[in-house]
Design a protein that fits this description.
By secondary structure, this protein is an alpha/beta fold. It is built from two helices and ten strands. The longest helix is centred in the N-terminal third of the chain and has 13 residues.
Length: 116
């Protein structure tokens, strides 16, 4: 497990951090768990984002504490997520987490997949 300063590589907005904390509380996720942020193959544009909760980091993960939220990111995903801001929206177009990823050269219409 690598302790990394993620501030220059990825950001999380206050709104997203508060939503993560709310979801953890509503689902009785222990406070010492972290949110796994990742990228995997799939979707209409080639890559999709993934979010989930883990008790601890996996071997080779980078761990980050941003705005009171612990994040776990594997090395491959971190490569694609550098410079990304994780936000949360609850507007007219729907409710959910949004990735503002400067590395994405194309995205699908629903915003759930991207390509580089």
């Amino acid at each position: 497990m690598t302790e990394t300063k993620l501030e220059s590589q990825i950001q999380i907005t206050e709104k997203a951090a508060n939503e993560v904390k709310k979801i953890m509380s509503e689902n009785s996720v222990p406070d010492d768990y972290g949110m796994r942020v990742g990228v995997k193959g799939g979707g209409c544009s080639g890559l999709t984002y993934s979010l989930g909760f883990n008790e601890k980091a996996n071997e080779g993960d980078s761990t980050f504490d941003l705005k009171g939220v612990k994040l776990f990111v594997d090395g491959k995903s971190l490569f694609y997520l550098a410079g990304t801001t994780l936000d949360f929206t609850d507007g007219l177009k729907g409710k959910g987490f949004v990735f503002d990823n400067p590395n994405a050269t194309k995205t699908c219409g629903c915003g759930e997949s991207f390509g580089v």
